[in-house]
Amino acid sequence: MPRRKRWSFLSPPLEDPTIRWLDDFHRGEFTPGGRAVLWGMLLSGAMLVGGVTEPLAVCFGFCVSALAIGGIVGHLLRPQLKLTRQITSFPSAGEVFRYQVDVENLGKRVARHVVVQERRLPADLRPHGNLPIIDRLEPGEKKSVNLELRCLSRNFFDLENLQAATTFPSGLVNSGRKSRTADRLIVYPRITKIIDFDVPHSRNHQPGGIAIASHVGDSSEFLGTRDWRQGDRLRDIHWPSSARAGRLITREFQEEYFVRLAVVLDIEARKAKDELRLERAISMTAGMTDALAQKEYIVDIFAAGDDIHHFQAGRAIAHLDNILELLACVEAGGELNVRQLEETLVSEARRLSAVIMIVMDWDERRRRLVNRLKNEGLAVRVVCMKSNQSLDGLEEHEIVEVPA
After folding, report:
1. Could you tell me if 140 and 108 are in contact, meaning their C-beta atoms sit under 8 angstroms apart?
2. Closest among 36, 311, 80, 20 to 173, alpha carbons compared
3. Do residues 359 and 267 lie in contact, with contact meaning Cβ atoms separated by under 8 Å?
4. Which of 6, 282, 355, 358 is the most exposed place for a label (fewest CB within 10 A)?
5. In sequence order, what DSSP letters do the residues of 155-188 get, joined into one string?
6. What's the pTM?
7. Where are the alpha helices (DSSP H) in 205-300?
8. Best CA proximity match to 299, nearest among 256, 344, 354, 338
């Protein structure tokens, strides 16, 4: 589900549906030459309001006639094209996303000067670079072009209006049909690379976590051998050692577990300006999850606002891409529900090695929460996204600096 965005007076003009429609109409229906004629028509028409003069009337009439004739003739010569997007990967916010579009001529006429572009784009997806043009496409022929979109922010987007239009013969208007096939584009959050991060954790043999197994159905690791005792399984007898010792020797195993960490993402952002810090926090969470998953840790992620959302990553539980998809649609939350978060983390304490908290601010409520977790025997690391905030009550090694 796409995340909802909070409106403010600082929102860009394209957030307004009317302005976005006018921008799409101006960009999608006319070529650069057609836009010049369109503006000539609008300016001459506006000046005619002040009084009719022959030069202005001629200019206005010429512009209207050129656009009307170009539109009518172009509509009659619209090519029959099949368009298919080839989206095989997803970008991160701030990147330019390039993907391939296959264009096939299903008609009986040659398609000339075909321009391919996305129409009715949301405000956070903007066209980038020059639009690709196919000079000539024979009947039954298929060609591929590359489209580029600048992704301004993370979110889920549905691309529903892919257009291939011809500028032939007038060169003023784009005449073509839109492909109504929808494709989902997920823009991941920016990933803040975590290079050197001290991860607090216990030995792999701690109780709790996810058990390691060498073989399917076997959840323990070989520790050594010892004398056989009543109650040991016969299948655990080590026969070569028993033959050498002249008595029964059995193999001994020990349960081993993957290190399991909790990353708490504080999503409290009650003002529009607070969302800037939230975006940085989400980017850092993405980078931290990536770094921890590469070390084969199990990572529990808690998105905490007025409600708590919990999901896991690492060691084939959820691929990093799945985590980035979830982070792409995280919305700003209300006031942090400290009581619910404390109950959730305390109930998981026995299965966790440490908790890494990424907080929007540092106050008495969050300080008490950290102290309660430390009293439960958990190692805690805190990242505060509010600059120049003093994290009193924490040891120096418990504070993680925010990357520049």
Report:
1. no
2. 36
3. no
4. 6
5. EEEEE--EEEEE-TTTSSB-EEEEE---EEEEEB
6. 0.79
7. 239-245, 274-294
8. 354
Alpha-helical segments (H) within 235-392: 239-245, 274-294, 320-328, 338-347, 364-375
**Which two three-digit tokens encode residue 159?**
């691309």
Tokens of 331: 């919305």
Let me know the angle formed at the C-alpha of 28 by 183 and 165, rounded to the nearest 5 degrees. 80
Query: Any long-range contacts for 306-311 (C-beta under 8 Å, 24+ apart)?
Result: 306/333, 306/334, 306/335, 306/336, 306/337, 307/333, 307/337, 307/340, 308/337, 308/340, 308/341, 308/344, 310/344
* Cα–Cα dist 390/51, whole Å: 68
Asked whether the beta carbons of 96 and 148 are under 8 A apart, the reply is yes
DSSP letter (8 states) at residue 132? P
Q: Which residue has the tokens 């009193």?
A: 392
Cα distances (Å, whole numbers) of residue 262 to 165, 277, 302:
52, 21, 7
Q: Which amino acid is at 127?
A: P
Q: Tokens at residue 16, please? A: 């307004």
Residue type, 171: G
Question: What is the chain's Cα-based Rg?
Answer: 31
The one-digit pLDDT tens for each residue of the chain (404 residues) are 567 776 666 677 888 889 999 999 998 999 999 999 999 999 998 888 877 788 888 999 999 999 999 999 988 888 899 999 999 999 999 999 999 999 999 989 999 999 999 999 999 999 998 999 999 999 999 999 999 999 999 999 999 999 999 998 888 999 988 888 899 999 999 988 876 666 665 544 344 444 444 333 344 556 678 888 887 888 888 888 888 888 888 887 655 556 788 899 999 988 877 888 899 999 988 888 888 777 777 788 899 988 888 887 665 555 677 888 888 988 888 888 999 999 999 888 888 888 999 999 999 999 999 999 988 888 888 989 888 888 888 888 888 887 76
Residue 332 backbone phi and psi in degrees, to 5: -65, 135
φ, ψ at 395 (rounded to 5°): -75, 160
How far apart CA 372 and CA 379 sit, in angstroms, is 11
CA distance 212 to 210: 7
The number of beta carbons lying within 10 Å of the beta carbon of residue 93 is 19
Angle 30-32-38 from CA coordinates, rounded to 5°:
60
